[in-house]
Amino acid sequence: MSEAADHEDRTEQPSEKRLREARERGDVPRSRELGNVAVLGCAVLALKATAGGMGSASRDWMRDALTVDPALIDAPDRLLPHAASLLGGLVVPMLPLFAAALIACLVAPAVMGNLRFASAALQPDFNRLNPLNGLKRMYGRDSLVEIIRSVLRVLLIGGIGGWMVYRAFDTLIGLPQASLEVAVSEGIGLASSALLAMVGALGVLAALDVPWQHFRHRSRLKMTRQELRDELKESEGNPEVKARVRQVAREMSRRRMMEAVPTADVVITNPTHYAVALKYSAGAMRAPKVVAKGVDEMALAIRELAGKHRIAIVEAPPLARALYRLAKVDQEIPVKLYAAVAQVLSYVYQLKAWVPGRGPMPTLNAVDVGADGAPDSDVKDSTP
Predict the structure, then answer these.
(1) CB neighbours of 89 closer than 8 A, spacing ≥ 6?
(2) Which residues lie within the region annotated Disordered (predicted)?
């Protein structure tokens, strides 16, 4: 009951991964009828193509085999080599048939689209020794199909054979009165015609069996919806695991940024929504580098940490938004923001060098970033 329910649940077509795994373990569609047609058809074609040469070679071999060499009577030790020589002479004319049969063994799998070697198919499968599995094969759907196929095979071959006999009935009756050469020639012609007709009949059966085997193979490999979801998770990664990995990566990135904030020269703010920490070492860097950036809670943490380490905090909303949108952590700022950042750094350096009571306190004029600034609503959190 559970197996029937499980079969009903398998409503999805097999995925490419499942088909590939099946091929790797040798589970591919096979058609016995196509194999029979290929072997018999190639053998018949080879026989018709080489009939003259094989007949001549067989006649010569028969003459040599029936000719007794008197020297062999007094040399028993030469009997075995002589027999081996006769056997070799018999095999040589049959080589075209053997070659045709060997080629046919490759033709059938190639037509089915599964010409490949699978070492897993050579491993023993002890489930085949299970009597219950044997009973299922005997009384299941496959056994019914096999019975229908066997009946069709008998009807087709029997019908072709009866038709050939009926058609050649007059010729067969006249063979005993014909000469040996004529009788042999007529007999070979009738046999080859019968074989070709038999190949045609089996070809009809193979044409029905090949699509059935493909359908049966894919039906056996069908999957349930849960199996498809599990395979998708396995191939693309579990969404929960991937989300956790991204979360851990963000936490590690934020931790590294927070560790780098004390080394910054200035923190440019929005003043509350954005914070970007910059560091510049003259001679060691071509341009200022972003060591940390954040929005909302992250921005607040950067400002608090900068305040603890007495890092200059400068309010420049357009520049803060532009840096957050265009610059990346651990990379130099974009060239288009050089002038604006240089204006801020110049102000910070002047502020550090200023001594109260010795001249007016430095002031920062409005920082112009041109079209590079963006409204708060246009900037999304791009913190790594």
Answers:
(1) 57, 61, 64
(2) 1-28
Q: How far is CA 264 from CA 252, 268, 284, 318, 350, in A?
A: 19, 11, 14, 20, 16
Please tell me what DSSP assigns to residue 175: G
* Residue 239: half-sphere exposure toward Cβ, Cα within 13 Å: 3
pLDDT band at 270 (very low <50, low <70, confident <90, very high): confident
Amino acid at 331: Q
> From CA 380, how far away is CA 384, in angstroms rounded?
12
Q: Which residues of 219-229 are buried (b: 16+ CB within 10 A; e: fewer)?
A: eebebeeebee
The CA distance from 210 to 32, in Å, is 9
Amino acid at 209: D
**Encoding tokens for residue 232?**
């998708």
φ and ψ of 29, to 5 deg = -70, 135
3-state class of 223 per DSSP? strand
Bridge partner list, 294? 275
Does 85 score more than 70 pLDDT? yes
Answer whether 0.85 is exceeded by the pTM.
no
Confidence of residue 378 (pLDDT cuts 50, 70, 90): very low
Strands (DSSP E) contained in 228-273 are 266-269
The Cα 146–Cα 155 span in angstroms is: 14
Q: Are strands 289-295 and 274-279 parallel, antiparallel or unpaired?
A: antiparallel
CB pairs under 8 A, 24+ apart, for 221-225?
A: 221/14, 221/18, 221/19, 221/22, 221/27, 222/10, 222/11, 222/12, 222/13, 222/14, 223/10, 223/12, 223/13, 223/14, 223/15, 223/18, 224/6, 224/9, 224/10, 224/11, 224/12, 225/9, 225/11, 225/12
CB atoms within 10 A of CB 128: 9
- For residue 376, pLDDT beyond 50: no
Domains delineated in the chain? 28-220 (no CATH), 257-378 (3.40.1690.10)
Residues 9-44: tens digit of each pLDDT = 777 788 777 877 777 776 777 777 787 788 877 877
Residues ≥6 apart with Cβ < 8 Å to 224: 6, 9, 10, 11, 12
